[in-house]
Write a structure and sequence with these properties.
With about 375 residues, this protein is an alpha+beta fold. The protein folds into three domains: about 80 residues, 434 Repressor (Amino-terminal Domain), CATH 1.10.260.40; about 70 residues, no CATH class; about 180 residues, no CATH class. It is about 60% helix and about 5% strand. A four-stranded mixed beta sheet has the order 1-3-2-4, sandwiched between helices. A hairpin with a 2-residue loop joins β2 and β3. The two termini are about 30 Å apart.
Length: about 375
């Protein structure tokens, strides 16, 4: 997908008639003489100079003969004027819908580099609509704010819909830059096995590129998108087309156990739950049959049931956890996270075995 920068609109616009008037002054012609040369009425020439009538192809050809230059110059001058005039009118209309700026986390979107800041409210609304790839506030509301277009509804989505929608839109934008081969289920399942081995890598520089590459070969774009402050989303899965899927991860808890569990949870949605519904996973709302199935899928892929039973029947010391993790080929922090979730450890225990992450902005 090609992205275009939103044009900055000047406060004033100049009709091509001003250029005509300048040339008349250079020639020393009055409007009446110019009208005779153009074979137009003086009234029409006056309206043309004031920009009240359009400069047509026929007029451009006449100007070419009378004033010089070429018809293309005059037509482009007219097109630029009409475009600028239309933009000004549109921005005035968009300024009346500035309530959108109160719904969206505009400050966060600017901080994260998703959009630019404008002092003009109409331009800021236009910038936000361009970010979402929609033409109007109504289209934005239907596709991204209410969740009716794709996502399963939830109480949190109703409250945080605009912020979550902005996060997901940025995920879509990043996914559009990733070239993927057509989706292949067997390749994706193989990619998940490779991903499981990558959990032992502590550095994102070591695991992110191969994860993105291997999933891309299977038709799945994997993106990491920082969520706006106060946005409770941890991950999302959606089919962008019949042949390309998206997994988006927010790194919400900034630890390797949550990161990898979220990845396999979203992968489960793609493999188990069809292509019609998109899934947004938010803090405290993993209810429903599909979510339980995705949880089970993630748990069993990271720690097979037989291995889990072996762990629960042994010592729970840090050394034992590390040894167990090495034996089954995953990171110790993932084992700790599972043990905490199952109540075998309290939430504050063995957290030093987890790997912590930070976005580059925070790390710097």
């Amino acid at each position: 997908m090609t992205e275009f920068a939103q044009a900055r609109v000047p406060d004033w616009v100049s009709p091509p008639g001003e250029t005509i008037a300048d040339l008349l002054e250079e020639q020393g012609w009055a409007q009446r003489e110019f009208a005779q040369r153009m074979d137009y009425s003086p009234k029409h020439v006056n309206q043309l100079i004031k920009g009240k009538v359009p400069l047509t192809e026929e007029t451009a050809l006449r100007l070419e003969r009378v004033l010089g230059g070429n018809a293309r110059f005059w037509l482009e001058r007219e097109a630029q004027y009409r475009e600028a005039l239309t933009r000004q009118q549109e921005l005035k209309a968009l300024a009346t819908q500035a309530s959108l700026l109160q719904e969206l986390p505009v400050g966060e979107m600017v901080r994260l580099g998703w959009i630019r800041r404008f002092s003009n409210k109409g331009q800021q609304v236009a910038e936000c609509l361009a970010f979402f790839g929609v033409a109007s506030v109504d289209a934005w509301r239907e596709r991204y704010a209410t969740g009716a277009a794709a996502f399963r509804s939830s109480p949190t989505f109703e409250r945080k819909g605009p912020a979550v929608g902005a996060w997901f839109r940025q995920a879509e934008r990043l996914a559009a830059r990733i070239e993927c081969e057509p989706f292949d289920r067997k390749r994706f399942e193989a990619a998940l096995e490779h991903a499981r081995a990558l959990t032992s890598e502590s550095s994102p520089e070591a695991f992110v590129p191969p994860l993105v590459e291997q999933c891309g070969r299977a038709g799945v774009a994997v993106v990491f998108v920082e969520a706006p402050r106060g946005c409770p989303v941890s991950g999302a899965a959606r089919w962008l087309s019949p042949d390309k899927a998206l997994i988006a991860l927010s790194l919400r808890h900034k630890s390797n156990d949550h990161l990898w569990f979220s990845f396999f949870h979203e992968a489960a949605h793609l493999l188990l739950h069809g292509k019609r519904v998109a899934f947004l996973d938010m803090e405290g709302e993993l209810d429903g049959k599909e979510e339980r199935e995705a949880d089970t899928f993630a748990e069993n892929h990271l720690i097979p049931p037989a291995s889990w039973r072996e762990l629960t029947g042994s010592s729970l010391s840090p050394a034992a956890v590390v040894q167990f993790a090495r034996k089954i080929g995953i990171a110790p922090g993932i084992v700790v996270g599972r043990m905490q979730k199952e109540g075998l450890l309290q939430w504050h225990q063995m957290n030093d075995l987890k790997v912590r992450y930070a976005w580059e902005r925070e790390a710097g």
